[in-house]
Structure formats: C-alpha cells, structure tokens
Amino acid sequence: MSTPKRLRLAAIGCGSRTFIYFEWAAKMPDHYEIVAAADHNAARRAKARALSQNPAFREFNNDVAILAEPRLADIMIIATQDAYHFAHASAALRKGYDLLLEKPIATNLPEVLALDRLARELGRRVLVCHVLRYTPFYRKVKEIVASGALGRVVSFEATEGVEAWHQGHSFVRGHWSVTEKSTPMIIAKSCHDTDILSWLVDSPCESISSFGGILHFRADQAPAGAPARCTDGCPAAATCLYDAHRYLGDQKRWLEVIFDRAKTATDDEIVAWLRTSPWGRCVYHCDNTAVDHQTVNMNFASGATGTFTMTAFSQGRDVAIFGTKARLLAGERVQRLAGAEIVIEDHATHAIQRVAVDLDAGGGHGGGDAGLIRMLHAEMLKPRAEDMESSLPISVESHLMGFAAEESRRSGRTINLADFKARLGRLT
Ligand SMILES: NC(=O)c1ccc[n+]([C@@H]2O[C@H](COP(=O)([O-])OP(=O)(O)OC[C@H]3O[C@@H](n4cnc5c(N)ncnc54)[C@H](O)[C@@H]3O)[C@@H](O)[C@H]2O)c1
Questions:
Q1: What is the pLDDT of residue 424?
Q2: Atom of ligand 1 nearest to the CA of 88
Q3: What is the pLDDT of residue 1?
Q4: Please, what are the averages of pLDDT over each run of 10 residues along the chain (428 residues)?
C-alpha cells in the first residue's frame, strides 16, 4: 500500500480552536505535519509549537508576517476571531493556500459571497469547520435519512439548547455578545444547525421566516441591587446562576479558553482578572445584543418544511424528522428518555427501533473536532473539489439561510433566499 501524502498544516490565530486541531493532527502523523503558526501572543505560539511535535516548527507574530513568507504549508487554518476571517482567508487564498476555515465564513453575506468567488477564481479548496457533519451521531442520522427508511422527508423540528451558563459566557459577556462586532446568534452559534438541517433534508432552502429576541439577559431582569460586576459584592451572588466566581470552581473549564493562566493563577489572581475582564460583568448589565431565543421556519425546494429553535434555556441538540414511512427522533432528550441516541417509529406497524451510536469518538462537539481532522486529509485529496462535504460553496448556502433568518427576525418579513442572495451579492 502506498504511503498517503502528508499534508503540511499552518495556522493564523492560536486560540482554542487551533489548539484542538493541532492536538488531533499531531496524533495522525501519517497524514499531517504541523509546520507553522502565527499569533500576537507569545504564550499561545509556544503552546502551538509544543502541540506541533515538530522541532522545525516556525512561529510568526501575525498574519502579515506568516503570509510574507513563501507558501509554507498545504493548508492554512484560519482560526482568528470572526471579524478577521474574511481578511485573513482572502490573503491566505491569494498566497496559494487551501484553507481549513473556522465558521463563520465571514461576518456578513456580501463578504461570504466574495470569498466564495475568490476561491473559485483561484481554484483553491476551502473546508469550513462545520464539525457536526463529522460526528458519528449526525453521520448516522444522515445515513438513515439517505437510506429511505423514513420514506420521503416531509417535515422536521430541531432545537439547539445553548445552555444558560454557556449563553452567559459566550453570548452575553463574551466574544459573540455584540452581534455588530461579530455575527448574529443564528450565524455565530446556529450556522452549524442550518448546515446540518439542509444537509439532512438534501434540498435547497427557498424561503425563511424567523422570530426572536432577548428575553432574559437584560437590565430589567437583574436581581435587586445587582452591581455592574459580580466582584463588586452582589447581594444575589449565592443564588445567581451566573455569578462570575463560578469561574474559580465548577465552571473553571470555561476560564481556560479565555484566560491563558487559568490553570496556574491563584484564586486571588483570578478574582483580580475578573474585576476588569468582560467575564466579570453581571450578565444583566452587559452591552449584549445577541438574542437568547430564536425560532426559524424553513421551506425547501423539495416541498419539505421545518422549524428550528435556538434557546439559552435548554441543553444540547435534538431533531425530529417526519417521513412518509416513519418518524425519527434523535438527540439529547431521546437519549435520556429512551437510552438510545436515535429512535425510529414505523407508521404502518408502530414498531420502534432504537439505534445506538458510538459517541466515543473522543474530543469536543460529540467527536466532531476529531472527525473533522480525520476527514480533512481525505477531503482535501478528493479528485473533485465539488465532492468535499463542508466545502465553501455548500457552506455558503447554509450561511445564506442564517443571514436570511436574521433579516427576517429584524424586518418581520419572510425572506426568499434567491432574491436575498442576488440583492446582497450585488453589494460586493
Ligand atoms: N467550529 C466550531 O464549532 C467552533 C467553535 C468555537 C469557535 N469557533 C470559531 O473559531 C474561531 C476561533 O475561536 P477561538 O475560540 O479559537 O478564538 P480565540 O480568541 O481563542 O483565538 C483567536 C486567536 O487569534 C489571534 N489573532 C488575532 N489577530 C491575529 C492576527 N492578525 N494574526 C494572528 N493571530 C491573531 C488572537 O491573539 C487569538 O489567540 C472563531 O471565529 C470562532 O467563532 C468555531
């Protein structure tokens, strides 16, 4: 058997995502060699170097420095924060790299479409990090739907429970709280869902409507006397779900992704850090504009329709798919109630089939992080770029659904996706 081609990986942005990808890639030395990374932060570069397990690993201070070099790798991982994706991805494409691009593709639809055009013009491959596609769970659901076991898909309902603490951490206090500086919630968190749902239905989405807003994380919901920061002596601290002091205790793993010294700092040092950091703020007194609940109604070319609900106040993803022969229920709730990840009920016989999925693929996102890196090699070497699974052209369509949902939520109108794409495409 011939040895597979080793793909050289480099990264712009050494945060939690690049660390995860480097960690998994380093475990697959037949497929990958990690050669370089760029970040302003020396400690993060050092961590990337350590994860690379490559003595010849090269460090750069930023995107400009790494891109000033001749092409160093086959694939550039773009894992800076959302607002930089478009600039960093465009520059890396022009330099000759194929990309592993973190979602979102860009923070607005005109830039999403422009990046797609650039990649096509240059003939480059871009795989978008829609990690859920690479989980054993969703691959099994896809296999069942594609097998025809459910008959024709008529409708679905799906939910994503962000979970209250996660909402507070990421979408009230954190990077994605002010949508004007990052992306709307339906893109920042739920572009995974529009991607997965359109993949399962296997038909283009034609129109969308959406409702949602901020119901809880706002000043009029604050406990009486709550100060601007948890570190300022809040009278509700003992009972508040969002007390920032939990970063020192049961929520410490969240601290590790935002504070480089989380593992070594003393409690006093962490409290001192919380006094000035965004993550020490009272969740009821932030500048957040990201919604804490949203529903989306979708109409597909096949005639199928579906609903999706994102809420801060549930946990995990659930999906129910209703076909002409059977219905499928899958996800966290089903797992808890039925002891299997997927349950199928036949309409004719009412026979119930439980399908267990081996979720032990390791790593975050239900095995999707590891699955993505496992598949990246094969995806990049597929003879035809159009056969790549979460390619840029395919991901553009599910981003389009998210941006259209946001347009609908804001305007109160139903959005026709073709018209929306044509209108926004003209802006670039
Ligand atoms: N696929 C997923 O499921 C998933 C999950 C979480 C986050 N994300 C996305 O991944 C991206 C990265 O998230 P993260 O949590 O790793 O972010 P992070 O903030 O931990 O890391 C980003 C890094 O980029 C560096 N950086 C900023 N400007 C730079 C420049 N000009 N040159 C080089 N480095 C620069 C920062 O110093 C930082 O270390 C975000 O866009 C986020 O939305 C995706």
A1: 83
A2: 31
A3: 46
A4: 80 96 96 98 96 98 98 98 96 98 96 96 97 94 98 98 98 96 94 97 97 98 98 96 97 92 94 97 98 98 98 96 98 89 97 86 74 95 93 96 98 97 78
Q: Is 416 in the pocket of ligand 1 (CB under 6 A)?
A: no
131 lines ligand 1 (CB under 6 A): yes
What residue type is 387 in one-letter code?
D
Q: Is 174 in the pocket of ligand 1 (CB under 6 A)?
A: no
| Best residue for ligand 1 mutational test, from 60, 80, 170, 373 (most atoms within 8 Å of Cβ) | 80
Q: What's the CA-to-centroid distance between 14 and ligand 1, angstroms?
A: 7
Q: How many residues does the chain have?
A: 428
Task: Kindly list the structural domains of the chain, giving each domain's residue range(s) and its CATH number in brackets, ordered by start.
Answer: 7-132 (3.40.50.720), 133-217+289-425 (3.30.360.10), 219-280 (no CATH)
Report how far residue 39's alpha carbon sits from residue 48's, in angstroms, rounded to the nearest whole number. 10
Beta partners for residue 309, in sequence order: 159, 295
pLDDT confidence of residue 362: 62
Q: Is 79 in the pocket of ligand 1 (CB under 6 A)?
A: yes
CB distance 173 to ligand 1 below 6 Å? no
Pocket lining: 66 vs ligand 1, CB cutoff 6 Å: no
Give the nearest ligand 1 atom to 17 CA: 16
Q: Who's near 190: CB < 8 A, 6+ residues apart?
A: 160, 294, 296, 308, 310, 402
In the block, tokens 């919901």 appear at 221
Q: How far is the CA of 86 from the centre of ligand 1 (A)?
A: 13
Report the pLDDT value the prediction gives residue 3, as an integer from 0 to 100.
57
If you take atom 40 of ligand 1, which residue's CA is the nearest one?
81
- Taking Cα atoms as reference points, which of 126, 282, 132 lies closest to residue 218? 282
Peptide bond into 136 cis (omega under 30): no
* Atom of ligand 1 at shortest range from CA of 41: 37
Instruction: Report the pLDDT value the prediction gives residue 245, as an integer from 0 to 100.
Output: 97
CA of 89 to the centre of ligand 1 (A): 13
